[in-house]
Specification:
By secondary structure, the protein is an all-beta fold. It is about 0% helix and about 35% strand. The strands form 15 sheets. Strands 1-15-14-13-12 form a 5-stranded antiparallel β-sheet, with no helix packed on it. Strand 16 and strand 17 form a beta hairpin.
């Protein structure tokens, strides 16, 4: 059957320059006061790395994709570099990476499919300079970079016989192809199926595309409930033949060809990861014999679940590694390794194996295990043997990337598995505080999704396990700016709703006596740590204050429902609140609040200024207000047309006022990160349109109290972004 095609032209062309340093406001000609260097507060991953891909031609070149944090590149001798920071708030959906492909002929070329959720826009992106600049092509279907089956793949593949061709398998709109390095895309309507399996209501569609290295034949995997999941074309996609249903009831999540033309397949009875597979299999397909052979590892090691990733050694065609998926063992997911094409296997966990986790560069990954032996990982959907180094097997987990350093020694000595995510940061951050340093106090406190949060002793180093909070989904955080080793955070956990530290996060203790059965909510801590207010997330919204870390509690009088609170950063007796459009102050350590008679916007968020008693700023969408007399009077700042958050950092010298940072828009230079050193009379945008950092939610920004020019802000997937004045 001749191939029919429906062409889609490029709807939008955007060329984006990536790099670490910015000089001013994009497209305006206005120069920033200082050049900025952008990086991350070091955590060590923190989110799901759904796939990695080595380039087979250029040694050291490898890409990694994440479900909500964008695409990364690493080249020989470097850390991971983010490649999708040019995507901003209006394009946030593209930062969930469905699939990627590195060109095996021209290593400078790389592609990715961006789309976090299928009900939003998606795009196919192409670069010819290692991801430094990109061209985007909008497509009439969605992608599911953060949905069920996101670890399958790769759905995107460059034809090694004609690298102008790139193929992409969508979730609900069939197979697509470009024949001109991504300038135009067309649907391959000759492909007979689109996949009919759904998981959690989401279409899984086409699972992967790959080519036989010994011929021009190509293969495509699709999620079909009748088991006919693999399709072959010998004529460049003009016609297709379904292979026999060798593993009905299971889905081939990954496929990998050996240099001698055999295809190895990892199967699971669902596509993971949200639903853990309960069964799986490993097969090898011989195209010459048109036959499948079951080579499932059976080591009596208690394996459960399915299989996720599979990879063949480029130097040894009978050497294969496969990962489990959904094995929630105490150790984590297992890796199985064969050097004879699956006749026999060794596993990390079995009697012939053994391993040692090395998390010395990101100790929090031990996750409180007393033996210091971190889990090997969970949700291991992809595994890759370095084509230039058979000892290096890289795999992604729900929290980071690991790589082995001596995989060929399995069975003869413990396999060393080391943290390998330097520069790749993928956390959804809620709030940060950078109080003035004192007695070796933390540089930064933070709270975030999945990981709860950290107390960073050094923002350039991944935290140790002691300074990892661990308990619950946090909702708020505060610390004592005069005694910054004292901090408290609130979480949604009923039994560990309020957790505090008195030693800079080295130890944490949960409040045992709560005055309300609710959880979550807000906290505000007195400047010296002598008290803190808690407003639980409850219908009443009744606030409480404690002076002994929760042994006893008192009702806070004078505040209505939905008050927003903050503590003065100098005077421990002063607390502030905005409530029902009025400004309130407590002068007795949070026990009683009274209105100052000053009206503020109902949505206003109060932020206290460190080092300046009585100084409070409020932002409310289109306006900033500030007081320097504890709310007796206010000044309006209207120099930003939009303002979503404000924060304060160290001034240029000891006599200078703190620098003000804001997320907003001045009406001229576009939405971005702004800085003011004259109390908001003028603002300079310090990021540019190549550094938008995806989804800046929740809106929270702060400066560093100790480092002039340093700013931190939250992202939903790109970790804690840190900006410094370039040197």
């Amino acid at each position: 059957m001749k191939q029919q095609r429906r062409r889609i032209a490029a709807l939008l062309l955007s060329v984006c320059l990536l790099g670490g340093t910015v000089t001013g406001c994009a497209g305006t000609g206005k120069s920033a006061a200082s050049k900025y260097q952008w990086s991350n507060v070091a955590i060590g991953g923190g989110g799901y790395v759904t796939g990695m891909e080595y380039n087979p031609k250029e040694e050291g070149l490898v890409y990694a994709r994440t479900d909500i944090g964008g695409l990364y590149r690493r080249q020989k001798g470097t850390d991971w570099v983010p490649l999708t920071d040019f995507l901003g708030a209006e394009e946030w959906n593209y930062i969930g990476i469905e699939s990627m492909a590195t060109d095996p002929v021209e290593p400078n070329r790389v592609y990715f499919a961006g789309g976090t959720y299928m009900n939003d826009s998606a795009g196919l992106f192409a670069s010819d300079d290692y991801g430094e600049t990109w061209t985007r092509f909008d497509v009439p279907f969605g992608c599911g970079g953060n949905q069920s089956g996101r670890g399958c793949g790769e759905r995107m593949c460059v034809n090694p016989n004609n690298n102008k061709e790139v193929w992409f398998g969508s979730r609900d709109s069939g197979l697509w192809k470009t024949s001109d390095y991504g300038k135009n895309w067309e649907e391959v309507t000759a492909f007979p199926v689109k996949g009919n399996y759904k998981q959690e209501g989401n279409s899984i569609g086409i699972l992967w595309v790959t080519f036989d290295p010994t011929s021009t034949d190509m293969y495509v995997g699709a999620a079909m409930t009748d088991g006919t999941c693999i399709y072959k074309s010998t004529d460049g996609g003009e016609s297709w033949t379904a292979l026999s249903a060798n593993a009905k009831g299971m889905y081939p999540l990954h496929a990998a060809f050996s240099a001698n033309g055999k295809m190895y397949l990892a199967y699971s009875d669902n596509c993971g990861p949200n639903l853990s597979p309960s069964a799986g299999a490993v097969y090898v397909y011989d195209p010459k014999a048109d036959a499948f052979t079951d080579i499932t590892p059976d080591l009596n090691d208690g394996r459960q679940g399915g299989f996720g990733g599979i990879s063949v050694d480029a130097q040894n065609p009978d050497t294969v590694v496969v990962s489990t998926l959904g094995w929630w063992s105490d150790n984590g997911d297992n890796l199985y390794y064969t050097t004879d094409g699956g006749e026999s296997w060794s596993g990390l966990f079995d009697k012939n194996g053994g391993y040692q986790m090395d998390t010395s560069k990101a100790e929090w990954l031990d996750w409180g295990r007393g033996d210091g032996q971190a889990k090997t990982g969970w949700w291991v959907a992809d595994v890759n043997i370095n084509p230039f180094n058979s000892d290096e097997v890289m795999y992604g987990t729900g929290a980071t990337i690991y790589s082995t350093t001596n995989m060929t020694k399995i069975g003869t000595e413990p396999v060393n598995i080391a943290f390998d995510a330097y520069g790749l940061e993928e956390t959804a951050v809620f709030k940060m505080l950078a109080p003035p340093s004192k007695d070796d106090s933390p540089q930064l406190y933070s709270i975030m999704g999945d990981l709860t949060g950290f107390a960073h002793e050094d923002v350039t180093q991944c935290p140790d396990d002691a300074h990892f909070m661990k308990n619950g989904k946090p909702t708020d955080l505060d610390c004592a700016f005069l005694e910054p080793n004292i901090a408290v955070y609130a979480s949604e956990e009923k039994t560990t709703t309020l957790t505090y530290t008195k030693d800079g996060g080295n130890t944490w203790e949960s409040v045992q006596h709560k005055p309300d059965p609710a959880a979550g909510g807000q906290v505000a801590m007195a400047a010296d740590g002598s008290s803190f207010i808690w407003i639980p997330n409850s219908v009443s919204g009744k606030p409480y204050v404690t002076y002994d870390f929760g042994e006893t509690w008192y009702y806070v009088e004078g505040l209505g429902f939905n008050a927003k609170i903050t503590a003065d950063r100098v005077n421990p007796k002063l607390f502030y609140a905005s409530c029902d459009g009025m400004f309130y102050v407590s002068k007795d350590g949070g026990l009683n609040f009274e209105s100052t008679g000053q009206m503020v916007a109902e949505s206003a968020e109060p932020v206290s200024v460190f080092g300046q008693e009585g100084h409070v700023w409020l932002s409310s969408s289109t306006m900033i207000m500030y007081t320097e007399d504890a709310g007796e009077s206010f000044e309006n700042v209207k120099t930003l047309s939009t303002v979503d958050s404000i924060g304060f950092g160290k001034g240029k010298d000891d006599k200078s006022d703190p620098v003000i940072y804001a997320e907003g828009d001045d009406g001229t230079n576009g939405y971005g990160i702004y800085r003011s050193e004259d109390k908001g009379k003028s603002w300079t945008r310090i990021n540019d349109d190549q550094h938008k950092f995806g989804n800046l939610n929740p809106k929270y920004i702060t400066g560093d109290s100790n480092v002039y020019g340093r700013v931190y802000f939250c992202t939903d997937g790109r970790g804690i972004v840190m900006g410094d004045i370039a040197k």
